[in-house]
Amino acid sequence: xxxxxxxxxxxxxxxxxxxxxxxxxxxxxxxxxxxxxxxxxxxxxxxxxxxxxxxxxxxxxxxxxxxxxxxxxxxxxxxxxxxxxxxxxxxxxxxxxxxxxxxxxxxxxxxxxxxxxx
Length: 118
What we know:
Layout: E1 3-7, E2 10-12, E3 18-25, E4 33-39, E5 45-51, E6 58-60, E7 68-73, E8 78-83, E9 92-99, E10 107-108, E11 112-116
Parallel strand pairs: 2-11
Antiparallel strand pairs: 1-3, 3-8, 4-5, 4-9, 5-6, 7-8, 9-10, 9-11
């Protein structure tokens, strides 16, 4: 059974930075596209970013482009999201998800909370 465990969330002031991680196990991580999806309180899920199997193709939502960077380490079975210049509207529960293509979300983690507030 696929296991995805997010970590690195927390409380940060506007303009600050956080780095999220997603540890993957029980599947061939390097064969899967990976994504970050977030859900703010009272809102539906919002796709944030995605990366291809080898890590050389990345995509971002317009709302985070230029501020967030997605990466992966296939040797460590880990997905990352570096978040800079955080804004209050970035406050959400952040999930990592695996899939067989961009836009595919076959499995999800439990999420890590990011709160941006002064």
